[in-house]
Automatic annotation (TrEMBL):
Pfam families per the UniProt record, alphabetical: adh_short_C2
Family the UniProt entry places it in: Belongs to the short-chain dehydrogenases/reductases (SDR) family. FabI subfamily.
Protein name per the record: Enoyl-[acyl-carrier-protein] reductase [NADH]
Family annotation (SUPFAM superfamilies): NAD(P)-binding Rossmann-fold domains (SSF51735)
Binding site for NAD(+): 15, 21-22, 95, 167
Keywords: Fatty acid biosynthesis, Fatty acid metabolism, Lipid biosynthesis, Lipid metabolism, NAD, Oxidoreductase
Native organism taxonomy: Bacteria, Pseudomonadati, Bacteroidota, Flavobacteriia, Flavobacteriales
Cross-referenced InterPro entries: Enoyl-ACP_Rdtase_NADH, NAD(P)-bd_dom_sf, SDR_fam
Species per Swiss-Prot/TrEMBL record: Dokdonia donghaensis DSW-1
Length: 275
């Protein structure tokens, strides 16, 4: 269903890799709501080719950019405004990667150049994106910027590894930049803390199947899907949430405020032989 919430709005969507990506679902929803946008991803991710399909479907252009490169970001922000015909109203940062996670290094045995790479891609890139937008004065008043995060920034999930620290940094950047962007330009900056979701990045985390099944049983409303996340993001891009800023917003079916659920307790008691 479309509510025309984003009619006439323009933006940039980072991170659509394939049809499972949160950014992919969000791009489809933004399109349905009447928004227009430029799609972007790292040049290396483009080679897999699937983003062309999304571009065609949504009538969008693609501009490759490595989100750690200021040069790429400057080019992206300039060109996006040219293509879309004006300043931007929304930006989605849907980017995450840890080399330590990828290579199976434990949290207590990190290779620090990998750690640094992950921090640059997953967190500092958010600052770089916003600083580039800010310096080019590329956002319209009351625009909205959203990045995606996970609750491991607040609580320990051992296998989330150094991504937990990256997410804590990302959420802090949202608050700090949100202050300046709010004061100067009335632009909102928020993070959405999403349930475990079966995407390429999600499935890269060790023990993901257990993780998602546990979260499903812990959450009164069940896990939020990528589609749910797209819907929530649309609301944050719309004019209906104008004074929501500098927040970390949970889209997790209630997981973050649940101590234990009856289902999880029952499964635990059964496994322990206390039937
Ligand atoms: N899947 C989950 O369980 C989950 C849960 C909470 C939050 N998130 C967050 O959601 C966001 C999107 O991830 P997803 O789950 O849709 O997975 P995904 O793998 O589909 O998306 C990750 C994207 O990051 C892009 N990327 C990596 N390095 C980049 C770079 N240098 N420059 C530009 N782009 C780069 C990838 O190409 C990819 O498109 C991430 O921030 C992730 O941490 C995911």
């Amino acid at each position: 269903m479309s509510y025309n919430l984003l009619k006439g709005k323009r933006g940039i969507i980072f991170g659509a890799l394939d049809a499972n990506s949160i950014a992919w679902k969000t791009a489809e929803r933004v399109h349905e709501e009447g928004g227009s946008f430029v799609l972007t991803n790292a040049p290396i991710a483009m080679r897999m080719g699937q983003i062309n399909e999304l571009a065609e479907k949504t009538g969008s252009e693609i501009i490759p950019a490595d989100a750690t490169s200021l040069e790429d970001l400057e080019n992206l922000v300039t060109k996006a405004q040219e293509i879309l015909g004006g300043k931007l109203d929304f930006v989605l940062h849907s980017i995450g990667m840890s080399v330590n996670v990828r290579k199976g290094r434990a949290y207590t045995d990190q290779k620090y150049d990998w750690t640094q790479k992950g921090t640059d891609v997953s967190a500092m890139s958010f600052h770089k994106v916003m600083q580039t937008l800010y310096k080019q004065d590329a956002m319209n008043e009351w625009g909205s910027i959203v990045a995606l995060t996970y609750m491991a920034a607040q609580r320990v999930f051992p296998d989330y590894n150094d991504m937990a620290d990256n997410k804590a940094y990302l959420e802090s950047i949202a608050r700090s930049f949100g202050y300046f962007y709010g004061k100067e330009k009335n632009v909102r900056v928020n993070t959405i803390s999403q349930s475990p979701t079966p995407t390429t990045a999600g499935q890269g985390v060790k023990g993901f199947d257990g993780f998602i099944a546990y979260a499903e049983r812990m959450s009164p409303l069940g896990n939020a899907t990528a589609q749910d996340c797209a819907d929530y993001t649309i609301s944050l891009f719309s004019d209906l949430t104008k004074r929501v800023t500098m927040q970390n917003l949970y889209n997790d079916g209630g997981f973050s405020n649940t101590g234990v659920s009856n289902e999880v307790m029952e499964a635990f008691m059964k496994a322990e032989g206390h039937e």
